[in-house]
UniProtKB/TrEMBL annotation:
Chain's role: Transports dicarboxylates across the inner membranes of mitochondria by a counter-exchange mechanism. Can transport 2-oxoadipate (2-oxohexanedioate), 2-oxoglutarate, adipate (hexanedioate), glutarate, and to a lesser extent, pimelate (heptanedioate), 2-oxopimelate (2-oxoheptanedioate), 2-aminoadipate (2-aminohexanedioate), oxaloacetate, and citrate.
Protein known as: Mitochondrial 2-oxodicarboxylate carrier
Species of origin: Parnassius apollo
Main subcellular localisation: mitochondrion
Solcar repeat intervals: 9-103, 111-200, 209-298
Origin organism lineage: Eukaryota, Metazoa, Ecdysozoa, Arthropoda, Hexapoda
Family annotation (Pfam families): Mito_carr
Length: 306
């Protein structure tokens, strides 16, 4: 097998394993992503707590009210955009991570923690550019508090966004810099921690213990990445979601949105949705990395790429 053939087969396996990991993760964890978005879109206003039936005081309260007012299927509102995006998104993320690793070796014979972190940063920014239009549509759908059966389709929401605001920074690419910051920082921590720590903790011969080792490291990686990047996630939700006053753009830039939230609602508001985000991306991060490893190893054994 020539070097070119080997590289192409490895790339195909990285795409297949990454796409499989993304699809499995989003199907399992989407309800918590929706809860996180609802919290991030909710302004801190004590006068709304008793007056608005859609004001959420916690994860359980949010889920109860969503079930009561919007129905069971509301927990999967906006799932089609991430399903359509996750396969290419995760495929691109894992593929570009492997390619960026080669670029950031800095003369070392083996990857270092800096290599993993910078490769993760590059992969996160790359996937953000690809997925941002899907994120705009997803946030628009998730912010709709009508019954699930009354929510417009993904395609009709997409057409409305394009018709009213176009494809640029006010339309389908709204909040791109916030998405790039969010994804870049998350993946820098996520990949940097996972691959660095995995190399220091010995592998187990017992398959069950080895599975637990990968799950534990992946879970910790997802939690750390979530805690570091959430202010950018809040800014992204505020920029891409409905504005407080229709027709008036309050949240425009990433840094401006973060400063505005901090000034008006306090430091804690920058961490809105942290618990559902951690509950999603902790196990979700573990699921992705473990599924990727097992699918990639399966394909590697099947096609004997050396």
């Amino acid at each position: 097998m020539t070097d070119v053939e080997r590289l192409l087969k490895q790339a195909a396996m990285q795409i297949g394993a990454g796409g499989s990991a993304g699809f499995v993760e989003v199907c399992i964890m989407h309800p918590l992503d929706l809860v996180k978005t609802r919290f991030q879109l909710q302004a801190t206003n004590s006068s709304l707590k008793s007056a608005d039936p859609h004001y959420y005081n916690g994860i359980i309260d949010c889920m109860k009210k969503m079930y009561k007012y919007e129905g069971l299927t509301s927990f999967w509102k906006g799932i089609l955009p991430p399903i359509l995006a996750e396969t290419p998104k995760r495929a691109v993320k894992f593929l570009t991570f492997e390619q960026y690793k080669r670029f950031f070796m800095f003369g070392s014979s083996t990857p270092t923690p800096l290599t993993f972190s910078l490769a993760g940063l590059g992969a996160g920014i790359t996937e953000a550019i690809l997925v941002n239009p899907f994120e705009v549509v997803k946030v628009t759908l998730q912010s709709n508090k009508a019954l699930a059966t009354q929510v417009p389709s993904t395609w009709s929401v997409t057409r409305q966004i394009v018709r009213e605001n176009g494809l640029g920074s006010k339309g389908l690419n709204k909040g791109l810099t916030a998405t790039m910051a969010r994804n870049g920082i998350f993946n820098m921590v996520y990949f940097g921690f996972y691959h660095s720590v995995k190399g220091y903790i010995p592998e187990y011969e017992d398959p069950l213990l080895e599975f637990g080792r990968k799950i534990a490291i992946g879970f910790t990686s997802g939690v750390l990445g979530s805690c570091v990047n959430i202010p950018f996630d809040v800014a992204k939700s505020r920029i891409q979601g409905p504005q407080p006053t229709p027709g008036v753009i309050k949240y425009n830039s990433t840094v401006g949105a973060i400063n505005l939230v901090y000034r008006e609602e306090g430091f804690r508001a920058l961490y809105k949705g942290l618990l559902p985000k951690v509950l999603r991306l902790g196990p979700g991060g573990a699921i992705m990395l473990v599924v990727y490893d097992y699918v990639y190893n399966y394909l590697d054994n099947k096609f004997q790429v050396k």
